[in-house]
Amino acid sequence: MDFNLYFKSRQGEMANLLKQIVSRESPSQDKKAVDSCASFVISEFRKIGARVSRFPQKGIGDFYVVEYPGAIRGDVERPVLVLTHIDTVWPVGKIVQMPFYISGSKVYGPGVLDMKAGLVMVISALKALHQLGLRPRRRVLVFINSAEEIGSEAAYEIIAPLARKSSHVLCLEPALPGGALKTQRKGRLVVRLEAKGKAAHAGSPEKGVNAIEELIVQIQRLKRLAKGGVTMSVNQVGGGEKANVVAEAAWAVLDIRFWDSGQKNRITNALRQLKASTQGAKLKSSIESLTPPLEKSKPSATLLHQVRKIAASLEMTLEEGKTGGGSDASIAANLGIATLDGLGPDGDGIHSETEYMLLPSLIQRTALLTEIFRQV
Q1: 141 CB contacts (<8 Å, ≥6 apart)?
Q2: Which of 220, 243, 247, 253 is most buried, judging by how many CB atoms fall within 10 Å of its CB?
Q3: H or E stretch at 51
Q4: How many CB atoms lie within 10 A of CB 27?
């Protein structure tokens, strides 16, 4: 079966499905919007007889696990886990300024590449197998995350056990620009620093302890960690009450990224050893979220070798690369499970108003995914 031709003949159908999903805007922190989009996506899976499990959430959209049967019934072979997410970084209403449209080979719209195209891929792949009377080799489990862009411990607690019982994990995040898979990703620490001081009149600052000044000193100390590929950015700050009052309290939220566990340990050790530099000041640091790095491993290298053979049969070449952004694939890889990330389509402009996806790559990557389901 030539799945490249098969999906090319259904390009219009796939583009329309993508339009339907993109048009249902789904910012991470808007539960009502995310749940509405997820409801539509789940209805598409149910049309092909997939089983759906819902994991209700309070402050964020509900999570879903979709199960599609494989060729061997029961649990004789471990399933394949497919990681997707339905949330985007764009607020409701953004589609007015960023409408869904196709220009030549490019498809535009909020979240079109990151990663609603990935949802179209897995729906289309399973739908094709269903309509052709074919089965994937293994059961297919599809996890739909509603809060991947902001991180969710509740999502991690679902992904980890699913990954442990799976043969391998496929993440449908977009490819690197040019089409390369993501075989290395930075891990991420979101750290909150809080400084406490003593208020005083600004005319006699020596009578107080300035929490903002203490915070600045600590941030500069942590900046020394930014070497060997480690990056740190201070993206949220606050503190003080009035211009003429010495600041009694201050806080900052830091985004720290790293390539491997050794760098992570160096960062966490430095956080534990932080001490106030000003007499009378108090300092507190807390980790708000931690995403492990995606590191190369033998199981993942073996899986990549298998998938490259399949890609070659489809006249595709799969390169590999690395990125500073995180994804749920890192959770599975950190457990030692064979994992491939960046299997989604090619494009560029993620998290920007110029975000676009290349339509030919949606066809090619869906054909590849379908063959992976059949063969691996």
Answers
A1: 65, 66, 67, 79, 80, 81, 82, 162, 166
A2: 247
A3: strand 51-55
A4: 22
Q: What is the mean pLDDT of residues 63-87?
A: 88
Which residue type does 12 have? G
Say whether pLDDT at 76 is over 70.
no
User: How many whole angstroms separate alpha carbon 372 and alpha carbon 376?
Assistant: 5
Domains for the chain: give ranges and CATH numbers: 3-185+293-375 (3.40.630.10), 187-291 (3.30.70.360)
Identity of residue 140: V
222 contacts 270 by C-beta, under 8 angstroms: yes
Find all residues with CB under 8 Å of 368, minimum gap 6, and list them: 307, 310, 311, 314, 316, 343
Selection from 58, 54, 14 nearest residue 38 by Cα: 54
- The strand pair at 168-171 and 338-340 is best described as parallel
Residue 73 has pLDDT above 70, yes or no: no
| Secondary structure (DSSP) of 256-300 | EEESSHHHHHHHHHHHHT---SSTT-EEEEEEEEEE--B---HHH
Contacts of 53 (CB under 8 A, 6+ apart): 64, 65, 66, 67
pTM of the model: 0.90
